[in-house]
Specification:
Among the domains are: 113-317, no CATH class; 349-383, no CATH class. It has helices at residues 7-17, 21-28, 38-42, 48-58, 62-66, 79-82, 92-114, 132-143, 151-163, 203-219, 239-253, 257-262, 274-284, 288-297, 303-333, 349-360, 366-373, and strands at residues 2-4, 45-47, 168-172, 186-189, 193-197, 223-225. It has 385 residues and is mainly alpha-helical. The protein is built from 17 helices and 6 strands. A hairpin with a 3-residue loop joins β4 (186-189) and β5 (193-197). It has a 4-stranded mixed sheet with strand order 3-5-4-6, with helices on both faces. A two-stranded antiparallel sheet has the order 1-2.
Length: 385
């Protein structure tokens, strides 16, 4: 069966994802005995099955390609039209995630306008010429939550604190067997959206990413990135990235930075100040390797010693993951069933309050409200005041 498609819409998506028709054909031909060709996807009349394969890649819904209206291609519609270079070589999985949240941001903006909700910026825009430490200590008084030893609870409280200042934070969760996992840790979208990758085995990394992206929000500098802690001491970083790293460090470490400043040289003689580093990590939720990276940046540990510590941490982490896998396999052989489900992303109170108002104003139906929060209809009453 053939249908008439709007070629401009497919071309728009190819441009948005920065891929060629040849690359798309390779992706969607997987599993076919006879691979598709450019002609198969770029013809004005297209087979429904082919269109379904295209949509399995872009996930826009079949009606998108059949709509005769020209697609919207403005700076406001996507960060990929506002910027062409990022601090990560984005793979397809990352581009899909970014596009997903860009569309969600636009949708929420429309919902807010229809519901007469004004979500205005409450914090000023800062400059990289301002001292990131001074800015961090100033904002700790407003944005830093009550400290909680539970890493996930601390992250949740941090997201709630930012919501109180109209900063909307989302998490995205990827299962271990996802084919195209996004090679990014987080990003900031103008004017007020921060998106984080859930790191179920490393909440400290996610917490630091949140603080780093908060730095981007403060500077109003959009970015998509994969944060490599070992690069935090790299002087080749841009001034914006350096500022955001310094801000994130001081925002999380607070007054305990004094203890880092007291260290003259971390080496094998003083056991690399491991006990002190471990204490600071537990009191701030900054990972130990991030603190050692800070020491490297301050020339308080040699590159050689830093590499040894980093390798040791990586080896221990790898063994821990292997032990978990062995235990899982052992339980399976013993017939022991362990409960396990895909972790749910943390919902920002700002998202919930926006949807609640839209629901009460009649802008959203019950179905749309539940779909937006990914909940069953019988859970609706729990989200209504």
């Amino acid at each position: 069966m053939l249908v008439e498609q709007n070629i401009s819409r497919l071309n728009h998506l190819l441009k948005l994802y920065n891929i060629s028709a040849d690359e798309l054909v390779l992706y969607i031909s997987e599993g076919l005995k006879t691979p598709l060709t450019n002609r198969d996807i770029l013809s004005s009349e297209i087979k429904v099955n082919t269109l379904k394969r295209i949509d399995k890649f872009f996930k826009k819904g079949l009606n998108y390609y059949l709509d005769p209206k020209a697609p919207i291609e403005t700076n406001e519609s996507s960060i990929f039209f506002r910027k062409n270079k990022f601090n990560a070589d984005l793979n397809i999985g990352a581009k899909k995630i970014v596009n997903q949240f860009e569309e969600l941001k636009i949708s929420l903006s429309a919902i807010s306008k229809l519901s007469d909700i004004k979500i205005e910026r409450e914090l000023p825009i800062y400059s990289i010429n301002q001292n990131p430490k001074v800015v961090a200590l100033e904002l700790r008084e407003k944005l830093y939550p009550v400290f909680d030893n539970d890493l996930r609870e601390f992250l949740k409280n941090s997201i709630s604190k930012l919501a109180a200042f109209n900063i909307l934070v989302f998490e995205f969760v990827e299962t271990w067997n996802k084919k195209e996992r996004a090679n990014i840790d987080g990003f900031y979208l103008n004017p007020n959206v921060i998106v984080l990758k859930r790191h179920q085995n490393s909440f400290r990394r996610e917490i630091f990413t949140l603080a780093h992206e908060l730095g981007h929000y403060l500077l109003n500098e959009e970015e998509i990135e994969q944060l490599e802690l070992s690069n935090f001491s790299n002087n080749n970083l841009t001034s914006v990235e350096r500022w955001c790293n310094d801000f994130a460090y001081h925002f999380l470490v607070g007054e305990l930075d004094v203890e880092i400043e007291k260290i003259n040289s971390a080496n094998s003689i003083n056991d690399y100040y491991y006990e002190k580093i471990n204490f600071i990590s537990n009191q701030t939720h900054i990972s130990k390797i991030a603190l050692y990276t800070r020491l490297l940046y301050l020339n308080k540990i040699s590159q050689k010693d830093y590499n040894l510590i980093k390798a040791d941490f990586e080896e221990k982490f790898q063994k821990m993951q292997e032990n978990k896998l062995k235990q899982k396999e052992s339980d399976k052989l013993m017939g022991i069933k362990r409960g396990g489900s895909v972790p749910k992303p943390i919902n920002s109170p700002l998202l919930i309050s926006t949807l609640q108002t839209a629901y009460y104003e009649g802008v959203l139906s019950e179905f749309e409200f539940c779909k937006s929060l990914n909940i069953q209809s019988d859970k609706l009453s729990g989200y209504l005041i």
